[in-house]
Amino acid sequence: MHLTILCHLSHPDRRIHWQLQGARIMKSTREKITLNFRGIRYKTYASTLQAFPGTKLSRLTGPQEASTEFDYDPNTGEFFFDRDTRVFEEVLNYCRTKHLHCPQYICKSVLEEELAFWEISEAALAPCCWQRLSDMESQQEDLALWEDSKDEDDQALLAQVGRGNNSCRAQWQPRIWTLFEKPFSSGSAKVLAAISLVFNIGICILFIKKADVEIEFFVYGHEYNSTDTVLNEIHKYFPYLIPLEFFCILWFLFEFSVRLTFCPNKKKFLTSPLNIADFISLFPIFIELCTHGQAWLGFVRALYTLKLLKILKLIEIPLMFQVLSYTSRSVFREIFIFIIIFIFESLFFGILMFYTEVLYPVPESYFESISSCIWWAVITLTTVGYGDSYPITEFSQVIAACAALCGVLTIVIPIPIFLIKFKGYYDAAVIKERRKRKMEQAAMLSS
Question: Mind telling me which residue stretches traverse the membrane in this protein (predicted)?
Answer without folding.
Answer: 191-208, 237-257, 335-354, 366-386, 398-420
